Structures are given as structure tokens and as C-alpha cells.
């Protein structure tokens, strides 16, 4: 049974959410349970974050190393869907919010809370992702945001921290808003809000400058049913595959993205992303699908992939539509097994080799040399039948004077 005297807070360990612990208790009268997840964002340890939450007034601290869960259940779904919002963005933040929401709900049930709080503003996508995900899991829970709903601005935070002597070390505020996890890194705000301003080197952390790359790096990635299982012959877990490709592709400056994107809330925003591992793995996975998926299945899947990315970006991870698309995508992966050889260099991941026991590529059908098993004589009948609708329509057009005009060869 939920307790109306407790709420759960998505806690990062930074100034905003540290101040929010005491601020929420003071403004709502509820005790605060802090929830923190490690999804590969780096930085402080979970134990450090836990102790800070308790020191700032949390009555409980729920911390989870969710890196493997995130890689296996969220990043791999995005990989199988070749998920790129607007064709370029590999859904860095969008796929972490449903996982965090699941643990927020779990903590609310465990500690008897009736409300969940997050630190999102009223202008971004994440407020929608958190609240729609929470409602999809447990519609009885309420959701609030101190920044959006309780006017918790930065100057208010600093004054509140000083007044209440909270154990928070003040540091110079970064000019950027940054969200990162093992799948990638999102950078926005500050001088980037002027879309004419080019990125500077301090924007980047996961990638080195592609203009000055080290020697090219050749890598062989083995997939089993759409999931990377070996790199250069060594067994890897999904998390290890992402981490290794982050390191190797990042060293070559792969995965830098700069775009104006359409936010869910209806505004356009300028975003920078770094996703070296995600971009390299998706490139390899797409090429293996080129080998292993049947033509019409492949055409449909490309449309499904685009729609899947849009739905997940738009806070629909738990929706019936996304679950149905997941079933289709999962079915397509049963033969997506094999090896992809890639060259990583100077900002590009280039596929140079493909090998698969389940490939539909047939050398004897594809070759133009002797040994060709394709019966070219069959093409005459194929063209005749395939072109029949066009011929019938063209005959009608000619009959009624609407035929395609053929230019004269007469030279004046």
C-alpha cells in the first residue's frame, strides 16, 4: 500500500537533485527516497552518490548497477531496430528513460511511496518519457518535477543549499546540458543554442578529433541473431561490445553528430551527440541484415526501424504499438548471424567484408563468370509479365492522345 508521506526521486548526485531532496520534503511534507542508476555514465561511484543522498536528507537510497541490464534489454533492442531518430541520432537518452522509470516504480512499490519526482524542465522530451513510462507501468502513481512544478531554479537551489548547509560542493556550472550513458552522449544549450556556432573541442568527450586520426583500425564483429557476441574472435557481452567499440571507434572520431532535431514537445532544438560504439555497431548490423534478410522482409523492416525510432523517441517504449514492432523485429533477427569486417578511420566506419552461414547472397547466382546458375532466359517472361500493367496503361494513353511525347531527332 502506498504511503502518502513518501515520494521517490530520480537522483543524479548533482546540485539540482541534491537540493531537491530537502526542498521536496519542505514543500510537499513527504519523506524522500533517492533512486540512482549506473547506466554507464561514468563519474562518481554509486556508493558515493548513495551517501550524499542520505546526507542531504533522503530517508532511503536505492542504487542499482544497471549497466548490463541497460546494454542487454535496451541497447540491443535499439541495435536490432537500427534505431536512428531522423536518420542520424541513435536515441541516447530516449532508451535510458524507460529503464530508469522501471526502477523508480519498483522503488515506489518497495518503499511504499505514492509519488515519483524527476528533475526535468517543462521544455524537454524527458519529462514526457519519464511520466508516460511511469504511467504505463503503474498508472496509480503521481509524478512531479521540482524544476517544472515548484519553481526550483538554479539561484533558488544555491540559496537553499547555503541556508540548509547541505553537503554539496559548488563548482562552476558547465555551459552545456549533458546527458550520457554507455550508448552515447548528448550535449546541448549554452552557445550551441545559436545554430550558426560551430562545436568547439570542449564539447566532446567520447570521441577524438577525426581530422587527426591514429592508424586505421580493422575490426571483425560477430553477431548471433542480431546481437554482437565476438570482437576479433574474443567473446563479449553486449556491454563489453559497446564499451570496446566506444573506445576503438571513439579514438577515430566516429559518431559525432550535429543536428537540428524536432522535439516531441513541438520545438526544434540544436543537439550534439557522440555515439561511437552505437554508430559502428549499427553500421555493422545493417550490413549483415543486407545479407540475411529477404527482399520484401528487408523493405518492411526499414520502414519499421524508422517508426520504432520515432515511437521510442516519443516516449512510447511501453506502448502496444512498440511492443508489436518489437515482435516483428525480433522475428527478423533469427538469421542475422555472421561476421562483419570494418575499417575504422578518420570519422568513418567502413564495411569491407561480410561472412554468414545464413546469408541469402549466392555467389553462383550473382557471378557473371562461368558457373553462373542464374537462368537469364527466364528474364524475358519476367519482364513481359512485370511490364504488362505499364503497357496496357500506355496503350490507353496513346488511344486518347495522352501518350508520352518523344523528342524529335531533327536538328534545325
Report what the structure shows:
With 412 residues, the protein is an alpha/beta fold. The chain has two domains: 6-171, HUPs (Rossmann fold), CATH 3.40.50.620; 177-293 and 335-364, Argininosuccinate synthetase, chain A, domain 2 (Alpha-Beta Complex). Helices cover 41% and strands 21% of the residues. It has 14 helices and 14 strands. It has helices at residues 15-28, 46-55, 67-80, 96-111, 126-137, 146-149, 154-163, 238-251, 276-292, 295-313, 320-332, 363-366, 378-386, 388-399, and strands spanning 3-10, 31-38, 60-65, 113-117, 142-144, 177-181, 184-188, 217-224, 227-231, 234-235, 256-262, 268-274, 338-345, 348-355. A five-stranded parallel beta sheet has the order 3-2-1-4-5, with helices on both faces. Helix 4 (96-111) crosses helix 5 (126-137) and helix 8 (238-251) crosses helix 9 (276-292). The longest helix is centred in the last third of the chain and has 19 residues, at 295-313. The model has no long low-confidence stretch (mean pLDDT 92).
Features of this protein?
single chain, 412 residues, alpha/beta, Rossmann fold, Argininosuccinate synthetase, chain A, domain 2, five-stranded parallel sheet, 14 strands
